[in-house]
Amino acid sequence: MSIIRTPRAAMLLACTIVATLGAHRISSLHAADAPAPQADVAPGYEAIAEKLAAFVAAEQASKNLPAVSIAIVSGDQIVYAAGFGEQHAADGSRADRHTIYRVGSVSKLFNDVAVMQLVEQGKIDLDAPVSKYLPDFKPENRFGKEPTVRQLMNHQSGVIRESPVGNYFDANQPSIAETVASLNETALVDEPGAKTKYSNTAVSAAGLIVERLAGKPFAEHLQTTLLEPLGMDASSFLRAGVPAEQIPDAWMWAPHFPHDPPRARFAAPTFDLGTLPAGNLYASVDDLANFLIALFEGGKFNGQQIISPATLAAMLKPVGAGTEAKPLYGVGFRVDQFDGHPTFGHNGAVYGYSTNLIGLPEEKIGVATVCALDGGGGFVRRLTEYALRLMLAQREGKPLPAIDLTTPLPAGQARARAGLYQNGDRTLRLLADGNQLLLSHDYLLSEVRALGERLIVDDPHTSGPEITPADDGQSIAIAGETWTRLPDAKPAPCPGRWEGLLGEYGEDHNILYIYEDRGQLWALIEWFYNYPLTEVSENVFAFPNAGLYPAEQIVFKRDANGAATEAVAADVTFKRRNFGDFPGGVFQIRPLRPMDVLRTEALAATPPKEARPFRKPDLAEPSKLDPTIKLDVRYATDRNFTGVPVYESAQSFLQRPAAEATVRAHQALKEQGYGLLIHDGYRPWYVTKMFWDSVPDNFHGFVADPEKGSRHNRGCAVDLTLYDLKTGEPIEMVGVYDEMSPRSFPLYPGGTSLQRYHRELLREAMEAQNFTVNPIEWWHFDYNDWQQYPIVNKRFEDLSK
């Protein structure tokens, strides 16, 4: 009974995420107290610098943002360059204009300029088929029309987004040649030239052409022919090519991670991408500013012509695909409008970093912004756009504009707004996570915050739209569409044919989640993007015709029992992640030392002393206050995570107000056909010490520190679940009790809609009675008055004495 029954990898990821709860918060929690930015400001731009510094400080405080850097270019000058926040927590170093970030897809612009340099030398014909330069480039092509070099760069080649080898998820660091070669295992998804479909591997194929014609590695060629002439001396397409001390701590997060606050996060992976030309450039904002200057100066920097003005003009000319009404790309550059001004540029999203680079060619104003946070695109876009508006206002002699700052919702508003809403055949959901409100809509799960009296989506990843609730609370309006509130009815069970597909796939750094919601299979991919899947056949499902993977599919492979062993999503293979076998629904690990030894030591130890005044303990048994409350006290049996009994009797106590509140929650649930089943309540302090000493350090996030005491020790925490009043059987949840894995998180997205409905039903009932769910354990609820009670260390058998 004491063997480890869950894979180490799954547990380690959970422990890594849990360990960051409450940690990695920027040094100052108040914008007014934030350290001054490391800034250089040209004369006449001080007022702009002041406004930007105030905005970044406020955003870092409210969103817990790590290192941020920004540079602003006007004509041939860098007029503002600054860094904010910590570069390295270990030494307290601060970010500045020279901090080096991986800038993601902004890399593509440099790859495309390198291609155009070869075009100018007569070595590449943009409209020649790719096979002219890469004879071994042979993806399956049913269209009878080959993609051209130009189409590789403007995302009209029909090539899939990610390659089987060297894709965004592949940590093995294959060469560009190996990455592109694997495209021969794939098929074009669209006719070349017919549609714009974003593709990292297509851009990488263009980079391989550069490498082949240059006769040297891509990164080396770009270093000497582009980066060095641009004065980008701190930049490289290889992580090893830049000073490690100038790369900031970079972080990953997801909207479903625990919120303590802030949302937990883990350190970003650092492997070089197989799609090196498409997303692996490391650069400072200072270096990116040089690139902007060259673009504004007709392709010239410091007197050296990098590309000709005519070539640059051709690159910035939008080229539509098929019948597209609004072309999205020139040659590599994203072309658009901002407040009526033409723009060029690109954003970047790569492990641990978010980038935005925008230039206004007519005004010769440009901004480069980077944040060391994955999924920070909403913030960097707002910062970039605010900087542009400030620059335009100053140039036009207008007052410098302010920018709206959001605030947390008032207490209680999240729960009042939560629910399912419908517009035609579409639905969206507002979810309450404590006092946070989350919007599940348009493939994203985003935080909703207050903007004065209004509501607006605003988190690091997404900014906007506004949400307008009706006065009666029965509908909301988003972007001119009205969504009507629906009764939150109990979902139907998941179709049996899909049960073997549900679960997690892939590696820790980027997990693919397959789950069921309201009778449809869904995929959560790249941490943020939730896509409904269309069933094509038993094992084949199609992504929607929008988002990251239009016209692509997920193909599952199953074992003899019908359980999926892998999912091939958009030609990328994700192996099934096994959470382990839990016989009888019991999670277990191997204690570090024998539990009887730990018991002897714990009974001889003394709880921490507390000086403040407390209420007198008055422990009561909820199951005696209402005998229909059931007990399954696992710690009185060997059916617990230690594998041995730690209690001498199967009893559960709470401080009387908490016990009475639990009874009220139970009574409310009975009206819906459910009751409460309690696993644990008051826990003697010595048992908390036993638990702490029985697990490795990386599991300490799941057990309380005896030096601080736990809320269980105070009689104000209860572990429980639901049972069915008709059958008396426990209700199946997404994960099992005491499971030390991400499935225990209260917002864990996996499983079935019925499992998540029951998890939310339990949470709502308990929160209505002044309990708060533990941020990492869906079954654990703390009574809000827990601080008023002392740590207690009496055995159950001694309480009556």
Summarize the structure.
By secondary structure, this protein is an alpha+beta fold. It has 18 helices and 39 strands.
Helix and strand arrangement:
Blueprint: H1 8-19, E1 38-41, H2 46-63, E2 68-74, E3 77-84, E4 86-88, E5 93-94, E6 101-102, H3 107-120, H4 149-153, H5 176-181, H6 200-214, H7 218-227, E7 251-252, E8 266-267, H8 276-279, E9 282-283, H9 285-296, E10 300-301, E11 304-305, H10 309-315, E12 334-338, E13 341-350, E14 353-360, E15 365-371, H11 377-395, H12 413-417, E16 419-423, E17 426-433, E18 436-441, E19 444-451, E20 454-458, E21 463-469, E22 475-478, E23 481-486, E24 503-507, E25 510-517, E26 520-525, E27 529-532, E28 534-537, E29 540-542, E30 553-558, E31 564-569, E32 572-577, H13 595-604, E33 619-620, H14 622-625, E34 630-631, E35 654-655, H15 656-670, E36 674-680, H16 685-694, E37 717-724, H17 753-767, E38 771-774, E39 777-783, H18 796-799
Parallel strand pairs: 34-36
Antiparallel strand pairs: 1-3, 2-3, 2-15, 4-5, 6-9, 7-8, 10-11, 12-13, 13-14, 14-15, 16-17, 16-23, 17-18, 18-19, 19-20, 20-21, 21-22, 22-23, 24-25, 24-32, 25-26, 26-27, 28-29, 29-30, 30-31, 31-32, 33-35, 36-37, 37-39, 38-39
Helix pairs in contact: 2-11, 3-6, 13-16, 15-17
